[in-house]
Amino acid sequence: MTLNISPGDLRRMKQARRAAALTGAGVSAESGVPTFRGKDGLWRSFRAEDLATPEAFARDPKLVWEWYDWRRSLIAPLAPNPGHYALAQMEKIFPRFTLITQNVDGLHRAAGSTAPVEMHGNIWLTRCVREGSICENRQAPLPEIPPRCPGCGALLRPHIVWFGESLDPDVLEQAFTAAREAELFFVIGTAAAVQPAASLVGIAKEHGAMVVEVNVEETPVTHLADVSLRGPSGKILPELVNLLQSA
Ligand code: BJW
């Protein structure tokens, strides 16, 4: 695959000192993690209202946990793909690089990204509904559903941002600051349908960033992109990293 990037655009990309990337489910698709809205996306077979809202959890924590247990078991054996590794390398290419992800699968960290800003949480973390304590738990399948806090016996929930819930203010601040300060902003493998994550692209653009989109399809933010790279991120990103590293 030869990337369709003009010499001028490549020069501008190479000159960037502050870069950021917003990633979505498409980046993990080539690792085998299901996306949400595509042809075989999770929201085609499951209703978000029944599984990914605080109301759903209050109504039926066992059902919600069964779904997360299934997803955890599905993701556990999966490995990062070349797209994840290319994004980890970007930390070495740009003097400042912030990776912002909507993904909860932990694959960016597994590929070596040092401090991904996980906007929607992490499927390997649980949170006590009473104490708010956050713990890592990589057991899949879980021995007890719904799991309970070893400290106080209250219910544990996935440390994930559900629809209608606010994002962590610190995480939000890191993401918005990176978008405002970026000279180069990548938006990769996301349908850009969920707020506030999708708004980061417009914010970066308004603050002068060059926007580069990598996706197999057009999205609602394609019109903001200075460069659109159409194809799988696992193929495009390693090539892009090669170009950025070339003299
Ligand atoms: C490839 C590829 C390959 C495939 N290579 N590409 C303002 C306006 C309207 C609504 C709202 C608003 N502000 C808030 C809302 C409500 C709501 C929202 O945005 N709703 C919209 C759906 C309309 N937002 C919220 O509730 C957020 N909270 C919030 O804002 O709080 C304050 C507030 C609340 C209520 C009202 C107002 C303010 C929280 C959002 C939390 C989202 N959580 C989820 C589920 C978590 C559950 C879980 O994972 O267990 O997070 S939703 C789901 O979507 C998941 C994802 O992170 C997120 C984004 O999906 P993503 O990554 O884009 O995936 P897909 O599948 O949609 O797209 C894949 C893309 O990849 C496609 O483009 C493919 O083409 C591409 N692709 N293979 C490259 N190989």
Secondary structure layout plus pairing:
Blueprint (H helix, E strand, L loop, with lengths): L6 H9 L2 E6 L1 H5 L12 H4 L2 H4 L2 H6 L1 H15 L6 H12 L2 E6 L5 H5 L5 E2 L2 E8 L5 E3 L19 E5 L8 H13 L2 E5 L10 H8 L3 E6 L11 E4 L2 H13 L2
Parallel strand pairs: 1-2, 1-7, 2-3, 7-8, 8-9
Antiparallel strand pairs: 4-5, 4-6
Helix pairs in contact: 7-11, 9-10
The site of ligand BJW has 34 residues, from helix 2 and strand 8.
Overview in brief:
By secondary structure, the protein is of the alpha/beta class. The protein folds into two domains: 146 residues, Rossmann fold (3-Layer(aba) Sandwich), CATH 3.40.50; 65 residues, SIR2/SIRT2 'Small Domain' (2-Layer Sandwich), CATH 3.30.1600.
Properties at a glance:
247 residues; alpha/beta; Rossmann fold; SIR2/SIRT2 'Small Domain'; six-stranded parallel sheet; three-stranded antiparallel sheet; 11 helices; 38% helix; 18% strand
